[in-house]
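lol forgot to send this yesterday, sorry. struct tokens for the thing we talked abt
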């Protein structure tokens, strides 16, 4: 955020397009938050309570997404959907994606039971203080999680076939 606020008009817009936390848009959709998009660039002014105006450079309006999801967070409920129905489910305004992970494969019965016993959370905020990315590079992500409640760790990166995951050194399933 400080980088954007301290930029002067000499900075080229092309540089900003390469920033991994920015997306040039004509409108704002709430699911943009789930994709970990912190800054939104627009060709015209946007009016949305989730966006805070930051600056205008070379005719491009820059907004900070105040509701951006952390790159990794815990979801305390899981909903299984067929591959072709995931996007439709994510667009459902009744879904609280901040606490419900949508997966394409079925969870093992024991995990389903553990998640079914979780209390329903009415708070819309994602609590990320128990999830810390300790190492992040092209081939490996290390995440430290401390939680007393059963949940599913959500990583806001694009899914890629062949990913592997471990929990305390033990292999575990990666859900798309």
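and heres what i got for the seq, position by position
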């Amino acid at each position: 955020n400080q980088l954007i606020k301290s930029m002067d008009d000499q900075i080229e817009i092309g540089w900003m397009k390469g920033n991994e936390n920015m997306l040039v848009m004509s409108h704002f959709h709430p699911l943009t938050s789930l994709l970990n998009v912190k800054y939104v660039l627009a060709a015209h002014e946007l009016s949305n309570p989730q966006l805070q105006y930051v600056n205008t450079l070379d005719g491009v309006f820059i907004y900070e997404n105040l509701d951006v999801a952390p790159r990794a967070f815990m979801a305390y409920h899981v909903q299984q959907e067929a591959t072709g129905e995931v996007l439709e489910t994510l667009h459902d305004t009744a879904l609280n994606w901040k606490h419900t992970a949508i997966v394409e494969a079925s969870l093992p019965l024991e995990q389903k039971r553990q998640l079914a016993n979780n209390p329903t959370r009415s708070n819309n905020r994602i609590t990320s203080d128990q999830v810390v990315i300790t190492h992040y590079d092209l081939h490996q992500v290390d995440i430290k999680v401390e939680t007393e409640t059963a949940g599913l760790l959500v990583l806001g990166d694009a899914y890629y076939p062949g990913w592997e995951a471990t929990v305390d050194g033990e292999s575990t399933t990666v859900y798309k």
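DSSP finds four helices and twelve strands in the chain. anyway ping me if u want another try
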